[in-house]
From TrEMBL:
Residues in RNA polymerase sigma-70 region domain copies: 14-78
Gene transcribed to yield this protein: sigJ
Gene Ontology molecular function: DNA binding; sigma factor activity
Organism: Acinetobacter venetianus
Coiled coil regions in record: none
Domain RNA polymerase sigma factor 70 region 4 type: 110-161
SUBUNIT field: Interacts transiently with the RNA polymerase catalytic core formed by RpoA, RpoB, RpoC and RpoZ (2 alpha, 1 beta, 1 beta' and 1 omega subunit) to form the RNA polymerase holoenzyme that can initiate transcription.
One Pfam assignment: Sigma70_r2
Protein name from the UniProt record: ECF RNA polymerase sigma factor SigJ
Amino acid sequence: MNTTTNFSNEDLKLFQASRTFLFGLAYRLLGSVHETEDVLQEIFIKWQQQPKQDIINPQAWLTSVCTRHCIDLLRSHHKSRTEYIGTWLPEPYDQSEDLLIESDYTLSTAFLLVLEKLSAKERAAYLLHDIFNFDYIEISEFLQETQSYCRQLVTRGRKHIKAEPKMLSTLPTSRQLVLLDAFKDAVHSQNIGQLKELLSEDIQFAADGGGKVSAIRHPFIGQSNVLRFFERLLFIAWNELSWKICLLNGNLGFKLYDHNQTYVTAITFNFNQSQISDIYVLRNPEKLK
């Protein structure tokens, strides 16, 4: 039986109108562009097949299906992420079509890593309520939980988020551009003094190779440790690559390419009020496709 015979242009328009929101919700939940695209494809198929007379509120129906599907995926991923080789970093989300878009901390690598500390339902409830402004009546329907329990989920989520206050803000894009231009210049000129001025005292440097390419297994913490790593390896290694500044995960970052113009590294950042506070280096080729 053809389940899509009665699928109309209006149905397509309704889905497309919600697509940006659904993508933003799914990506923040999953930390993977590829999985997010797969989720949206699954939702679209279900939307095609669902009798529309059964749907009172299309936006609520799409949000509910998206949220539950992402929660199921997060639960299935739990073991693979806990057994991940080295540091797990989210897949970079490239928004470089418009570098003038103002930065968004809720897409940042730093923020997504804090969300990783939450359970699947805590993450969903927190995002739906505090980021996307749904009320508890709606969230209880999406999660199929009582309103009281949803409030508990959001409260627990907020507790984790507030424990990482530096993740809850970012610098204006114009200021990020100044810092990253100086960062690139310091690396290319191998100027350790200039680089030191750009990095906070408590700088953290993490890398994700996924066990597929070389990368540090545990983050470096502290300015001296990070500067030593640049002197030992990165000044030379990164000067052999070409750099492209991009809007990655809501902040400015870099894509690095080898001599064959293969995309081999994504670098994202977190900032305090005047310096770089975190550097995240993604080298896992499975996440750079």
